[in-house]
Amino acid sequence: MTTPLFELHDIGTVNTKSGVPLRVMQGLSETHLQQLKKYSLDTSDTELAVTSDRKRFGTGSFEEWYAQGRTLYVAVTPDDVLAGIVWCGPKALPTTDREFGEGSEWHTVAYRSYGIFRGAGFMKKFCEMALAHYVTQNTGVRLYVQIACGNDASISLARSLGFVSLPTDALIDRTVEVLVK
Q1: Do residues 111 and 65 touch, judged by C-beta distance below 8 A?
Q2: Which of these, 95, 94, 180, lies nearest to 142 by C-alpha position?
Q3: How far from the centroid of its chain's Cα atoms is residue 97's Cα?
Q4: How many C-beta atoms lie closer than 10 Å to residue 19's C-beta?
Q5: Is the separation of the CB atoms in 5 and 66 below 8 Å?
Q6: What does pTM read for this prediction?
Q7: Phi and psi for 122 in degrees, rounded to 5?
C-alpha cells in the first residue's frame, strides 16, 4: 500500500545518540523532497556516489520512481531537516537460483542517512520502526537489501536488522551483497 505523494503519517520518534529527537513518518513532504534532491545531487558525498540516488532522486523523475509501488519513510529533526530515509517496494530478488524463495513475494529495502546524521546512532531503531510498519501493511512479503560490496556499515546494519547474506554464487551481480529476511 503506497501512501499518496506528499501525504505524511506519523509512525513514532527515535533519538540520535546525542538525544536529538527525530520524527518518523511514512511519506514525505515537498520540503523533504527538495532536501532529498539536494542531498542526491551533492557530488562531494562519496557515500551516495555508489548508489543510484543521483538518478533516482536528483536528475530523474521522483514521481515516476514513487509510482512503482514505493513506500517511503523519513526521519526529520524538530526543525524539519531530513536526517534519513528508508524505502521499500516490490522488486524481484536478484538471484540466479530460481528455487530460492520460490512462492515468495519479494520487496526491496534501502536506507540512507545524510550529512551530520551519519553515525548519529538512530538508523537501527529508525529501520526497525519503518520495516515493522511496512510489513504490517504488506503482509506475507519477504524483504531483501542489495548493498555495494565494501559498504561495511550498511551491511552491518542489515545484519543487525536480521538480514542474512545470500551465497555469492547465487547472485546476478557480484559487485553487491544481497541479504534477505
Answers
A1: no
A2: 180
A3: 24
A4: 6
A5: yes
A6: 0.91
A7: -115, -15
Residue 51's closest CA among 24, 85, 27? 85
Nearest-angstrom CA–CA distance, 169 and 137: 33
pLDDT at 1 over 60: no
Closest CA to 87 of 142, 40, 38, 28: 28
**Cα separation of 29 and 17, whole Å?**
25
- Which pLDDT belongs to residue 22? 98
| Ordered strands of the 21-26 beta sheet | 9-15, 21-26, 71-76, 82-90, 105-113, 141-148, 176-180, 164-165
CA–CA separation, 147 and 36 (whole Å) = 20
Region of poorest pLDDT, from 64-68, 83-87, 139-143: 64-68
Residue 64 has pLDDT above 90, yes or no: no
